[in-house]
Amino acid sequence: MAAYSPSLVFTVTRKEPELIVPAEPTPHEFKQLSDIDGQESLRFHVPIIQVFPNNNGVQEDPVRVIRKAIAKALVFYYPLAGRIREGPRRKLSVECTGEGLLFIEAEADVKLDQFSDADLLPPFPCLDQLLYAVPDQSDVLNCPILLIQVTRLKCGGFIVAIRLNHTMCDGAGISQFLSTVGEFARGATQPFIPPVWDRHLLTARNPPCVTHVHLEFTQIPNDFFPSLSTLIQRSFFFRLNELSTLRRQILPHLAHHCSTLDVLTALLWICRTIAMSSDLEEEVRIMSLVNIRSRFNPPLPVGYYGNGIVFPAVVTTARKLTTESMSLEYAVEKVRQVKVKATEAYVKSMVDLMEVRERRPVFPLRGSLVVSDLTKLQIEEVDYGWGKPVYGGVARGGTADIGVVTYYMRFKNREGEEGVVVPMALTKEAMIKFEKELIRRGVAGAIGPHKINGLRDGDGDGDGGNQMLKLQ
């Protein structure tokens, strides 16, 4: 384990925001979003970051290249140049107005080699400067669906920061669009994967028919979780060899039927529950975002860029999760149950639930952990002509102002060690307990001369400090 210095501080100078419109005329029409797109739990903006080093072989200006490529890509993805509208029963559609996405050109007085490994992980330093905050545009309706800021660095590298309206795309969808922008930036004239709309495939049936129990939408009395702005955020880096060691801690017959990330999810769920639950009889739930594109028969079309995700839940008590003699195996079994739930029938039932509820349901906060695996996405593979980014993924943990969501992202540190990064958002007290519990369970070596990440009981100001725990 290593403690890191405080976050890097630098200054960004922006030019005035501009609208990038499609490079050619596009249809003016209304397109209905799916009932998965329109669910309450996805009505927020997602900040995404890509960090690119200098490529001395490229003499072009990244701002100019990316601006031009976006305009070309929007000809094919023209709904992204429109605006989200809300209709009866809070149904969403996009009016394809061709108004464009918001683009900001910027310069930063910092070099990439001034960033430590910790500064290249969520929560990103100076995110408010790297990603323009549009005044009075926190809602998802009637505003640009995408905002992109390209910030040049003093070393010749650059940072691409994106604000995505989640009602339009999931992680796979925005990765597909950004990959297309990269293709056009490198000289393509057509997308390698043409975009497919087809949102009707994930729209409620007529009449709707709810056939399954959906624990992910259970209404809980006194449902409360501290807002993200009041929590400490840290990223935890698990090297590949450490993940292999963790996997060997469960019984062979169970290891044969689960993934390494299933085991990691089980461990984090246990440690987080111990850190947060004072009542052992409290219900706790794990929800895992599942990509359903291949779970339909036939599968959703290749190129579908809408939200193709659900997040089924399983529920237990804090006592069962944390005190069972084989607690890790118990938690792994629960995590596996989440994934097998997401059948085509389950998804259609969930979509119909959106239709029959008077108010579109949201997932519960209290006692919940929501996990989203982004390790198979292509955000960290996008090439605008300067090669792959050194980091590509979410810019912070949590969603909107909610801290119950975490992400798994691939990462390679400066020593060339590969692994998985997991950002967490907890209260100061819970973060201390969480880190101590990870160590107690043998997934980290000796602490050495420092307390946990340099944070002692009673220290810290709750400002979302950016330090990374390396599990030895």
Structural summary, described in words:
By secondary structure, the chain is of the alpha+beta class. The chain is built from 10 helices and 19 strands. Strands 1, 2, 4, 7, 8, 9 and 16 form a 7-stranded mixed sheet that branches. A 7-stranded mixed sheet has the order 14-11-15-17-18-10-19. A 3-stranded antiparallel sheet has the order 3-6-5, with no helix packed on it. Helix 1 packs across helix 3, helix 6 packs across helix 8 and helix 6 packs across helix 10. 48% of the residues are buried.
Describe what is shown at a glance.
With 472 residues, the protein is an alpha+beta fold. It has helices spanning 62-76, 127-130, 171-185, 240-247, 252-255, 260-276, 318-323, 327-341, 344-356, 428-440, and strands spanning 12-14, 18-20, 30-32, 45-52, 83-86, 92-95, 101-108, 146-152, 158-165, 232-239, 283-288, 290-291, 309-310, 313-317, 368-373, 391-394, 405-412, 418-426, 468-470. Helix 1 (62-76) packs across helix 3 and helix 6 (260-276) packs across helix 10.
